[in-house]
């Protein structure tokens, strides 16, 4: 396997063999020559925690390849099942993006050699859609068993002579699922004494994980939705929607993931979109349920960081709370607490008034 291929798909057996052949020990990795590798390993896990996806940087093949097993070691050393799931999914999402632009032959090779699928070229077009591949229905059923959207049900597929027709993107999505399982399998709890340079990166990962644990779990949020505590960016998205402005993908994602996380019922959320815009109701429902983790890969998405919203031009009308936080949910928690303190005290009960006037 070429270094470039191994860097793209470091979870594959051949890539692992390339790393093994180098016979690197922990003390080797602690030397200054591997600083970049250690930094990238920590970055992989941090991106998984903060963004839910590892980026597909490929500027330095060896760094990409070697950083993967070290990132796996970092996650294993944490021994947090939640982090295991998040990291495996984030790496698998990276694979999905890479596979969509991959040569068809390469995609097919991975499917056949690494997963043993009976995948063949197709090139058939139905309803204007090119189906690049066909996959034996046994393999299809196994690899799609955790997908819950209707489009993956066998009855909704075109099946010819025992083979399911698939687009390249769909094959990439199926491989994403297999990659996630493979990566998760590698995440076994380990207790290990690490040299200082490696431990320092693990400490950084731990810090980011602890800072985000509450956000990712949605802990500490008010038990009911408090509209007045919404951050300015979310107000901006919501007001735009209500005013009929065409919302960007990121605006819709930020708004939906925020409202889901603070506890707005999904039906109300779908109604919000369909009542104020010309969105397709079925598609809106699907997208909302996908973000809420009810459909698709069962991942409940949380709103992006302020930095990300800023990049997309959604960070608007900042106020004093914005200066103190890095995430819209932190804003919501602080503002909700503030509002609770500002509430006027309840009027005394009738019995108390009677007692006071006596
Ligand atoms: S700083 Fe964060 S919470 Fe405040 S408006 Fe910008 S993105 Fe929203």
Task: Describe the protein's topology.
Elements: H1 3-8, H2 13-22, H3 26-29, H4 35-51, H5 61-78, H6 81-100, H7 104-115, E1 119-126, E2 129-136, H8 137-143, E3 159-160, E4 163-166, H9 168-185, H10 196-217, H11 232-242, H12 249-261, H13 266-276, H14 281-291, H15 306-311, H16 328-342, H17 350-357
Antiparallel strand pairs: 1-2, 2-4, 3-4
Helix pairs in contact: 4-5, 4-6, 4-10, 6-9, 7-9, 13-14
Q: How can the largest sheet be summarized?
A: 4 strands, antiparallel
Q: Give the strand order of the largest sheet, numbering strands 1, 2, ... along the chain.
A: 1-2-4-3
Distance between the termini: 91 Å
Strand tally: 4
Number of domains: 3
- As a whole number of angstroms, the C-alpha radius of gyration is 24 Å
Ligand kinds: iron/sulfur cluster
Bin the helical content. 55-70%
Strand percent estimate:
5-15%
Mean pLDDT: 86
Q: Which descriptor suits the 3D outline?
A: flat
Q: Count the helices. How many?
A: 17
Query: Which blocks of ≥5 consecutive residues have pLDDT under 50?
Result: 349-358
Question: Which H/E pattern describes the elements?
Answer: HHHHHHHEEHEEHHHHHHHHH
Q: What quaternary form is this?
A: single chain
Structural class, by secondary structure, is: alpha+beta
């Amino acid at each position: 396997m070429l270094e470039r291929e191994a860097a793209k798909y470091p979870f594959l057996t051949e890539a692992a063999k390339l790393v093994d052949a180098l016979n690197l020990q922990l003390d080797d990795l602690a030397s200054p020559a591997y600083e970049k590798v250690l930094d990238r390993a920590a970055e992989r896990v941090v991106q998984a925690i903060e963004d839910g996806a590892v980026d597909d940087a490929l500027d330095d093949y060896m760094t990409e390849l070697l950083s993967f097993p070290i990132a796996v070691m970092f996650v294993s050393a944490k021994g947090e099942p939640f982090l295991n799931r998040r990291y495996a999914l984030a790496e698998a999402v990276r694979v999905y993006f890479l596979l969509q632009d991959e040569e068809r032959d390469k995609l097919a090779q991975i499917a056949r050699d690494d997963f043993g699928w009976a995948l063949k070229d197709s090139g058939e077009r139905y309803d204007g859609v090119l189906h690049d591949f066909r996959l034996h229905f046994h393999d299809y059923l196994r690899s799609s068993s955790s997908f819950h959207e209707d489009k993956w049900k066998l009855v909704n597929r075109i099946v010819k002579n025992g083979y399911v027709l698939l687009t390249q993107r769909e094959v990439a999505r199926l491989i994403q699922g297999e990659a996630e399982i493979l990566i998760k399998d590698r995440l076994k709890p380990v207790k290990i004494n690490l040299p200082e340079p490696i431990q320092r990166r693990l400490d950084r990962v731990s810090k980011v994980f602890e800072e985000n644990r509450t956000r990712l779990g949605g802990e500490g949020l008010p038990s009911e939705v408090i509209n007045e505590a919404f951050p300015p960016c979310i107000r901006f998205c919501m007001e735009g929607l209500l005013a009929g402005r065409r919302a960007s993908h990121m605006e819709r994602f930020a708004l939906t993931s925020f409202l889901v996380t603070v506890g707005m019922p999904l039906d109300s959320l779908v109604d919000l979109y369909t009542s104020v815009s010309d969105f397709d109701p079925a598609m809106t429902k699907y997208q909302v349920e996908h973000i809420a983790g009810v459909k698709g890969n069962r991942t409940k998405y949380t709103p992006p960081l302020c930095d990300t919203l800023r990049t997309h031009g959604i960070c608007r009308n900042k106020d004093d709370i914005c200066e103190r936080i890095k995430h819209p949910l932190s804003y919501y928690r602080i503002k909700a607490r503030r509002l609770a303190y500002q509430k006027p005290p309840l009027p005394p009960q009738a019995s108390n008034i009677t007692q006071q006037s006596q």
